[in-house]
Amino acid sequence: MDARALAALAANPGCHRRALLDAAGVDKRTVAERLGAPAPFGRSQFAFARGHSFESGVTAEGGAALIRLLCRQTGEEQPEPESVRVPELNAAGPAARAGRTALELRAAAARGGWSLLDHPMLSLPVAGAAVHLEPDALAVHPDGSVTVVEIKSFPILDGSADAAKVGAAARQAAVYALALEDLAEVRERALLVCPEDFSNSPTAAPLDLRKQCAATRRQLARLTRIEEIAELVPAGAGFAPSSSEGELAEAVASVPAAYAPECLSTCELAFHCRSKARAAGAVEALGRSVRGELGGLRTVEEVLEAARSEQEPADDPAAAALRRAARLRDAALAEAACR
Amino acid sequence: MSLISVLARAEAAESGRAAPLATVRHRHLAAHPLVLVPLTTAGEDAAPLGALVGTDRGAPRLLTVPQPRNRELRSTFLAALAEEVLPHIESAAEEVEYVERKETEPETGKKVTVQAELCLDAPQLLVPNPAGVEFLRLLGRATRFRRTAEEDPQAAHPSPPRVPLLGRWLSHYAERARVPGSSLLLPVTELLIRHWATGRSTLEDQHLAALLAWIAPPPGTTGEAAALHAELARDERGQLLVPPAGPSTDPAFDNTLLGPAIDRFDAGVADAAADLAHLVEAQLRPTWDAVWHAVDLLRTLPPAAHLPARWRRDRHSYTHHRDRVGAGEPPQPRRDDAVTAARKLVSREQSQAELDAQEALDDPLTMAERRLAGEAFAGEVLDVTMAYSEGKRPMPRPLVTCRSEDGPLPEGTARLHRALPSGGEQRGEVAEHGEVFTVRLTNGMGRSKEPAEGSVPEPGERLCWTLFEHAPRGGPGLPEPEATPWTHGGPPAQLPEPPDAFTPEDRL
Ligand code: SF4
Fold it and tell me: Fewer C-beta neighbours within 10 Å, C or N terminus of chain A?
């Protein structure tokens, strides 16, 4: 699971299905394919090439270019290019790499001066299980504090960028900041590095993480502990690749989900969960905001029944409002029809 | 989402077919709009890959960029686009009417009335979706500061002659598109979403083909099934049967078909450019047809009564930009100064309020939403008592007593508004609250002692009172904020901003 997935998970903390599959390290993409509802996301080779070429340009020169961008934001003095250290972070497996990253962070802080950790590994306990995360880069300042660096290939045009994309970047950076909390003093502002205008040259903007960190922390705390979810799943339910399609579908169905249309852009299982939600007539399939207005009415059928009811419902304000809405709507349509 | 739209979506989900959200068409549709369906290169929001463009649905012009990273090829594309779009945009510049406008004389500060031209029509642009509008904005921004060889003989990469002008117009249209209710540049998904509710979420409605499937399912299938097909069905090579409406392409298309085709072009394979053009056209054509299909569907709805008034504002906006270009003013700046930004914001809020009021007045279904929200009260006139104002010239101030089926007025309501049969707005002061309430009419009855015919309702008549004003801004015909001429108190003419610097790896 990466930070983007984690941020998405945090945004839908009510979904046990996703929490369990993620924690168990099940590849949701494969599961979705086996269930006949492959995930909507693919990655274009062009987007990949563009992202790659931009990122390698940014982290070139032994990290000096990136530190320059950062100093311009913070007002710190630019170091001599050769003095920026870029420690080696290789190790076998994510856990070992996370250990190595922690060591290097401490060493860099103790040594003073600038260091850049290129694709380090962090670990964050989520719902009782450790999740490994790989930020683009971490910059260690001479005072030992750390700035999270997010490198994105969408442009900053005339000083501003797509708000939705910036928001997603901030949510991701907040997850890294949380994972760093026990290792170092994390700066409140991450550094967002993007292409400038229509060029391939990097420019940077600060990302204030305070709000995002608080929100993500709260949502992660709300995630039910995995062991508790696992208890809901019947013994023997298997997500293993060897299980048959029927077994897989059963196993998935045994973990409660919380589908909303937002899943379509964040979760590989979305098409599967959507078809189940629609088949059940769940009102959430019509939009997350719809639920709030409908009180206890959970299905399309119940909604329409309340709307068409001949009698004024006794004490259900949502049903009464629906009934009135239906009358007003019918009258308006009739009025228009006879014009 | 209003409860009425929730209900419409639930109905659609049950029936498998979209349900109406409007009984009239709330946006102006030109007789001959220019449709532009663009595609971009993944990961490079502004880099064009191709487009279908034109006013003739049977004969769009196909433009492609066989290697999107090549500056010269992009230039050729932009020149061809200017050739297609500018004649359309300029087509309404000549025919004008004369309108009066109040202006402040710069020397004396006095208000004077001047005659001004107002173009009789304005050219309309349609794109598939909001991302298409965003693309035109980027394209406009990328090209309006360019210099042609004539303007700058030393330019390293001179722009084709008409491209900077195209950039200015695209920038203007994209900016105008941010004004609620404006119709110079419209994304058709938004048009459809305003008028029909599907049995799915608004998020999913962003898919043009799926949206159309819900509204007009092909015979023998439901909207639901047809929408799923449009979204998901793929052939044996993994290609979507219905390509996305862009500007982004499907990653499977990029990786399997487009990538190799561009490689062949780069390798100099004969006919590679033509092959690539075919590929791109096959991605664009279904969307082109879908846009026109959407236009057909929208034309089945009768136009709303306030459309000409709102379109007039669009005509003003068009005319003023024409004048700015004609007067040799520099292109729109990269960033608005604080005053302009604030003014635009205020003006957009006003436009939104005006649009909300007009849509409700034009459409009983929209008014039903306002009634449900407790912002409008329909009912019957029980009694009318004639009364007059005090003073030298007593004016009619009749008291109208009504009962509304929409419940009592909210406490503290002081003023109510209703549409006069003659078209104007009549205001009333609430004299008595309660299940049965009394309103003192205060205007719209003419200048004489006897109220003008039809300006006072009769007992038994049905009325609809609104809490909101019907014309929340300073009346029609007021110049748009962007129209304040710089010679008359507007911002001083800026010096033209320098073009963007070229770098070796520019994306546009
Ligand atoms: S798509 Fe399904 S599994 Fe994924 S978050 Fe939504 S409900 Fe949960």
Answer: C
Write down all domains in chain A, each with its CATH number in brackets.
30-38+227-338 (no CATH), 43-222 (3.90.320)
- Model pLDDT for residues A246-261, shown as the tens digit of each residue: 888 888 888 889 999 9
Question: Any CB–CB contact under 8 A between B500 and chain A?
Answer: yes
CA pair distance B361, B116, nearest whole angstrom: 31
The Cα–Cα gap between B403 and B406 comes to 9
SS3 for A159?
coil
Q: What's the pLDDT at B336?
A: 85
Work out the burial of residue B423: count CB atoms within 10 Å of its CB; fewer than 13 is exposed, 13-18 middle, 19 or more buried: exposed
* Alpha-helix residue ranges (DSSP H) falling in A201-316: 210-222, 226-232, 245-254, 270-279, 290-293, 300-308
* Residue-level pLDDT at B484: 52
Please check whether residue B183 is in contact with residue B311, taking contact to mean a CB–CB distance below 8 angstroms: yes
Give the ipTM of the model, two decimals please. 0.89
Task: Tell me if B201 and A322 make a contact (CB, 8 A cut-off).
Answer: no
As a whole number of angstroms, the longest Cα–Cα distance in chain B is 92
> B2, B26, B40, B44: best mutation site toward chain A, by most A Cβ within 10 Å?
B44
Does A277 contact ligand 1 (Cβ within 6 A)?
A: no
CA distance A290 to chain B (A): 7
Test the A interface: residue of B4, B6, B206 with most A CBs within 10 Å: B6
Residues 45-104 of B with CB under 8 A from A: 45-46
Distance, C-alpha B504 to centroid of its chain: 37
Q: Which two three-digit tokens encode residue B499? A: 């073009």
- Domains delineated in chain B: 3-357 (no CATH), 374-466 (2.40.10.170)
Q: Which residue has the higher pLDDT, B116 or A13?
A: B116
Least confident of A222-231, B187-196, B279-288: A222-231
Find the DSSP H helices in B197-337: 208-215, 223-232, 251-253, 259-266, 272-299, 307-326
DSSP secondary-structure letter at A122? E
Q: What are phi and psi of B45, to 5 degrees?
A: -50, -35
CA atoms within 13 A on the CB side of B333: 12
pLDDT at B423: 84
**Alpha carbons A177 and B90: distance in angstroms, whole number:** 54
On the question of pLDDT at B478 being above 50, the answer is no
Residue of A41, A47, A199 lying closest to B506 (CB–CB): A199
Per-residue confidence band for A234, with pLDDT thresholds at 50, 70 and 90: low
Residue B478 to chain A, least CA–CA distance (Å): 31
Of B8, B11, B508, the CB nearest to A198: B508
pLDDT digits (tens, 9 = 90+) for A169-202: 999 999 999 999 989 999 999 999 999 998 888 9
User: Please, which residues 119-178 of chain A have a Cβ atom closer than 8 Å to chain B?
Assistant: 153-155, 157-159
Report how far Cα B454 is from the mean position of its chain's Cα atoms. 35
pTM (2 decimals)? 0.92
